[in-house]
Amino acid sequence: MSVLDRFGRRLGTLRISVTDRCNLRCQYCMPEREYAWLPKPDILRFEELTRLARAFVSLGVKKLRLTGGEPLLRANLAELIAQLKALPGLEEIALTTNGVLLADQAPELVKAGLGRITVSLDTLKEERFFQLTRRSGLAEVERGLVAAAAQPGLGPLKIDTVLLRGVNEDELLDLVEYAGRVPAEIRFIEYMDVGGATTWRAEDVVTRAEILERLSARYGRIEPIPADDGAPAERFRLPGGQTLGIIASVTQPFCKTCDRARLTADGTWYLCLYAERGHDLRALIRGGASDEELLEFIARAWSLRDDRGAEARVGLADRAPLVTLRALRSDPRLEMHSRGG
Ligand code: SF4
């Protein structure tokens, strides 16, 4: 079964944030000193997450991506992966992680059924890693990448990088070369003005056009790879054969093909990364809703979806952070680290 929204976009991917906690404090995601966290009793148990995932999969979701905060902070994550892996109709379980805890956990997660891993990494310099994340851990992330690359049966490994003007943009080429050595496919993501990015400024975005220009200056002709799966990254091949991606969420958003929904760790379902309100699925399942009622609710909400958050913000005069600090403090679900980026 598949469900279409008002623009004919099918529900295809569900990102599940398994915790809002993180062991790093990246500038573009968690720049503040203090945070309001989701209350512990509200965090969904694995059985609850699996029940919700089952409903989404029966409505056409083929891919689940586990996110955070930092998903590897959630205890016994392999157990959840094994439960999700058993869902009929599901094609893939992926994970986005900062990689700090990955080396130790990768073998168990892959054994449980994890199919793909994406590691966020913005610098190869220890001192800069500390400035960007306010924690140490670059060596652990690199160990995690090596461990993930060595796992048999795992899909192509990816590295996600956000380039910030005047901060790490000088590492563009070093990061490409590093990814080639891992080996992993690196994707450069334009710095986004989503909830949590309270220090975002348009002039700090290193754009798709600039990235391509710098790559071409170094490598010569960059060949576009035709898209075949509606994924957000535009992919390119360098003359030596190495592939990489660019996710131009700010300058060339891809809302037209967006099949993604997001579930926070406390069961709030958002239909767009920029949505200011979500649907409380925890209240439904803890309130005794039947499976049929749950399916009906999700299908109806998706069929009414008309979100195109990033497209709506292109060309805004005085574009600024989406949510004020005050609003973030009153509702931690507005934070990017709660809704899984
Ligand atoms: S802004 Fe919203 S609709 Fe657009 S691609 Fe992102 S999640 Fe999808």
Topology (elements, then pairings):
Elements: E1 13-17, H1 46-58, E2 63-67, H2 77-85, E3 92-97, H3 102-112, E4 116-120, H4 126-133, H5 138-149, E5 158-162, H6 172-181, E6 185-189, H7 208-219, E7 223-225, E8 234-237, E9 243-247, E10 260-263, E11 268-270, E12 279-280, H8 281-286, H9 291-303, H10 309-313, H11 325-330, H12 336-339
Parallel strand pairs: 1-2, 1-10, 2-3, 3-4, 4-5, 5-6, 6-9
Antiparallel strand pairs: 7-8, 8-9, 10-11, 11-12
Helix pairs in contact: 1-2, 1-9, 2-3, 3-5
| Strand/helix succession | EHEHEHEHHEHEHEEEEEEHHHHH
Which overall shape is indicated by the principal axes computed on the Cα atoms?
globular
Helix-strand category: alpha/beta
- Strand fraction: 15-25%
Cα Rg: 19 Å
Number of DSSP strand runs: 12
Distance between the termini: 27 Å
Mean pLDDT: 93
Heterogens:
iron/sulfur cluster
The number of domains: 1
Q: What's the CATH superfamily, by name?
A: Aldolase class I
Q: Total number of helical segments?
A: 12
Describe the largest sheet. Answer: 12 strands, mixed
What order do the strands of the largest sheet run in, or round the barrel if closed? Answer: 7-8-9-6-5-4-3-2-1-10-11-12
Question: Architecture, according to CATH?
Answer: Alpha-Beta Barrel
CATH topology: TIM Barrel
Q: In CATH, what is the class?
A: Alpha Beta
Bin the helical content: 25-40%
